[in-house]
Amino acid sequence: MKEIFNIIVDLFVKNGFVMAFLIVGIVAMFSNFISAKVTRGRIHSSAIAIFLGLILAYIGGRVAGGSKGLSDIPIFTGIGVLGGSTLRDFTIISTAYGAKLSEIKKSGLIGVISLFLGIVLTFIIGALVSVAFGYRDSASVTTIAAGAVTFIVGPVTGAAVGASSDVVAISIATGVLKSIAVMLLTPVLAKKIGLKTPRAAMVFGGLMGTTSGVSAGLAATDPKLVPYGAMTATFYTGLGCLLCPSVLYFLVNIFLP
Questions:
Q1: pTM for this one?
Q2: What are the CB-based long-range contacts (under 8 Å, 24+) for 32-36?
Q3: 144 lies in the same domain as 243
Q4: Angle at the Cα of 103 (from 88 to 41), degrees rounded to 5?
Q5: For the purposes of burial, counting CB atoms within 10 Å of the CB of 98, is it exposed (0-12), middle (13-18) or buried (19 or more)?
Q6: Are 208 and 118 within 8 A, CB to CB?
Q7: What is the pLDDT of residues 195-229, one digit of tens each?
Q8: What is the pLDDT averaged over residues 25-32?
């Protein structure tokens, strides 16, 4: 029995990338079940999946005593590849690949304004919070503020400006927290903020920006609104990746040399 177990473990270790997809699939299936049967659709499955992923990462880090979460355990090393920077950047490109500038014009000038307003205001809030917690160097402040924009923009910005791995991790955590908040609060506040039309969904996606949070929140509100909110949220991510490590980083350098 022990030999069979060792063979299985060895098989999973040697095929860690495949194992990673298996784990993600199991977590996704379990999250769908919890969302549908326990919360009756009030909490989207993606929010539950992210929460479970954070728990697994914490457990993995505690058990292995490392700094890479679940991937510190040999049998789960593929998780580190699946969640690494290469596939992260590929995800960014694939998300924005099918978007066309002509499509965003359908939301009018207010859609364009919502994109810039959402990024700049979120960045400022993130920067102020990071300074309040004692960060004073421009690279750290910019990276954490970019994480507040989205958990994708944070690490992209951190890599560009040379932030430490700890700061990049904080930026990701900040973005994930924002994403979960948007997922949970969107269906609760949708009627109060008039989130009923495609145009409103596009403006909402431009202001919030987190594609996963906006998509999940709109899916729980009205599935028909998802493509509209996701479209501007996609532009938000791409625009954030351009502005945060360049123009906004330059402005932060003026105040925090």
A1: 0.69
A2: none
A3: yes
A4: 60
A5: exposed
A6: yes
A7: 888 888 888 888 888 877 887 788 778 878 887 88
A8: 86
CB 123 within 8 A of CB 150: no
Same domain? For 63 and 132 the reply is no
Domain membership of residue 174 (yes or no) is yes
The CA-based dihedral angle spanning residues 44, 31, 98, 148, taken in that order and rounded to the nearest 10 degrees: 60
Helix, strand, coil shares of the chain as percentages rounded to 5? 85, 0, 15
The domain total for the chain is 2
Separation between Cα atoms, residue 129 and residue 136, nearest integer Å: 11
Tokens of 161: 């400006």
Residue 190 has what DSSP assignment?
A: T
Q: How far, in Å, CA of 33 to CA of 29, rounded?
A: 6
Burial class of residue 173 in the structure, from the number of CB atoms within 10 Å of its CB (0-12 exposed, 13-18 middle, 19+ buried): middle
In tens, the pLDDT along 104-122 reads: 566 667 777 888 888 999 9
